[in-house]
Amino acid sequence: MADIHANLIGGEWTTSTNASRNINPSDLSDVVGDYAQADAAQTEAAIDAAAAAFPGWAAASPQRRGDILDAAGSAILARKDELGRLLSREEGKTLAEGVGEATRAGQIFKYFAGEALRLSGERLDSTRPGVDVEITREPLGVVGLITPWNFPIAIPAWKIAPALAYGNSVVMKPADAVPGSSWALAEILVQAGLPAGVFNLVMGRGSVVGEAIVASPKVTAISFTGSVSTGRRIGARAFETGKKFQLEMGGKNPLVVLDDADLGTAVGAALNGAFFSTGQRCTASSRLVVTEGIHDRFVAALAEKMQALKVDHALKPGTDIGPVVSSDQLEQDLRYIAIAREEGGRLVTGGERLSRETEGYYLAPALFADTDNSMRINREEVFGPVASVVRVRDYDEALAVANDTEFGLSAGICTTSLKHATHFKRHAQAGMVMVNLPTAGVDPHAPFGGRKGSSYGAREQGSYAREFYTTVKTAYVFGG
Ligand code: NAP
Questions:
Q1: DSSP-assigned letter for residue 364
Q2: Which of 119, 133, 293, 474 has the fewest CB atoms lying closer than 10 Å?
């Protein structure tokens, strides 16, 4: 394999004996690149490098940290088209989505460049005379970041930027399916002047690299985004080894559509929320909970819009939906489509593999109607372009069905009733609530995260990120 993209360990680009080939899911003959696979010893070396670099970075002025993050943000924005293209090639989302995601990553770095300077403490009057109580925030140490494949640059960015802004050093393991975007980020951070060892990239399998990061006593905290099963396993291990951890996991997000909804708004929210990014979003609107007065019109209008979507090569102009990310994910999607049929769901449209000019993992977006909330299709995360409709009598039943899930990431409602929108906002058991919007699509400066089985620990993004990436110190000072 020529030109293997190396891991970044202690400021050195370090190759490995093993590499994995990154293939474009839109065109299996297109090799995105070869990427080194770290082993446990290299992961350990990256952790040691991060530990050695930590004191210097923690002591660096917030201005210096901010300047480096700002330079990284500018570089990402300047390269957004190229990075977006790389992202679309390795993950399969459309070029517009890829460029949008790269732009977001740049904006996130810019945001946290400012946050580095805004970190403040607090002073309290003591209950004891002559004593001052000072509350300050300090970095944690070496932070391990483990990310999924579905947002190859935005999720790494929203973990790396706050970790560095608040003075931590980083060991990062991207998803094995999409190492290219993280490799590009590592290159940008080096060029932005980040001191050696402050950021380390170790690519490779979760079972090797991820396990080594989570097991290491030198790693103080883990920020993980991925599936529920991996997250729970990592959480248990992190707890055993005394680490702080946050887990962002799956979703089965309901989008409630009430009789009084604007039909166009509701169909648009469902179409975008359930199927854009090939439905591969933790916040995807995968359960459509629809009251009976609008049900038939909604299903017919949504199916019509779905049939007009162009599923094709992610880089082709006019493509609305790219391929599924991998053969494993495609198999999982097809398995759930078969399960939904066996359970008695009515396939309204889609659900079949598609052939295109280039060989890729193309799937027609699938809509099931006549499903019950107890069916597996409504209880388990598919993580593909598959949505199901549950027909309900009224708002009260809609809310009950929306909340009847082990997940609690995002929940949406389409209605023109202020009363129902307000009630839903208060009573939806989810970390994020959307009114007349898809369940997916969030702002980078607002807190992100869920409840119940979807999330564990502090929120990500915006100023709330400091809750995870810093630790609070309370000092009592008696001046005499
Ligand atoms: P995944 O299979 O759980 O993998 C996530 C990451 O964990 C990957 O880097 C993976 O490495 C690594 N990993 C696997 N086993 C590990 C282990 N034993 N120890 C340490 N690390 C390990 O998830 P995915 O398939 O990449 O992503 C899809 C999932 O992410 C969906 O469930 C989706 O809902 C969730 N997600 C959640 C959010 C959110 O914010 N709530 C956002 C996006 C995605 P490999 O590359 O080797 O598998």
A1: -
A2: 474
Tell me: the pLDDT tens digits for 334-385?
A: 999 999 999 999 999 999 999 999 999 999 999 999 999 999 999 999 999 9
Listed in order, the ranges of the chain carrying CATH 3.40.605.10 are 7-249+454-478
The predicted model scores a pTM of: 0.97
- The one catalytic residue in 91, 248, 381, 460 is 248
**Residue 282 is a catalytic residue:** yes
Measured CA to CA in angstroms, residue 168 lies from 139, 162, 225, 228, 254 at distances of 5, 9, 19, 26, 37
- With a 6 A CB cut-off, is 35 part of the ligand 1 pocket? no
Both tokens assigned to 58? 């923690």
The rounded Å distance from CA 330 to ligand 1 centre is 16
Q: Using CA atoms in the order 16, 224, 274, 326, what is the torsion angle rounded to 10 degrees?
A: 20
Taking residues 313-342, report their average pLDDT. Answer: 98
Q: Where are the alpha helices (DSSP H) in 221-288?
A: 228-240, 263-275
Which CATH architecture best describes the domain 7-249+454-478?
3-Layer(aba) Sandwich (3.40)
Q: Which of 180, 213, 172, 170 is nearest to 68 (CA)?
A: 170
Nearest CA to ligand 1 atom 42: 282
- Active-site annotation holder among 282, 381, 414, 460: 282
Q: Provide CB contacts within 8 A for 14, sequence distance 6+.
A: 6, 7, 8, 36, 42, 45
What is the C-alpha separation between 373 and 390, in angstroms, rounded? 7
Contact in structure between 195 and 115 (CB atoms under 8 Å): no
Closest CA to 119 of 469, 477, 474, 475: 469
- CA 314 to CA 96: how far, in whole Å? 9
What CATH number does domain 254-435 carry, 3.40.309.10, 2.30.30.240, 3.40.50.2300, 3.40.50.1970?
3.40.309.10
| pLDDT band, very low/low/confident/very high, at 2 (cuts 50, 70, 90) | low
Buried b (16+ CB within 10 A) or exposed e, 250-279: bbbbbbbbbbebeeeebbbbbbbbbbbbbb
Quote the distance between the C-alpha of residue 314 and its chain's center. Answer: 20
Angle at 187 between CA 182 and CA 188, to 5 degrees: 95
What residue spans of 1-142 are helical by DSSP H?
Answer: 40-59, 62-78, 80-91, 95-118
137 lines ligand 1 (CB under 6 A): no
- pLDDT digit string (tens) for 32-57? 999 999 999 999 999 999 999 999 99
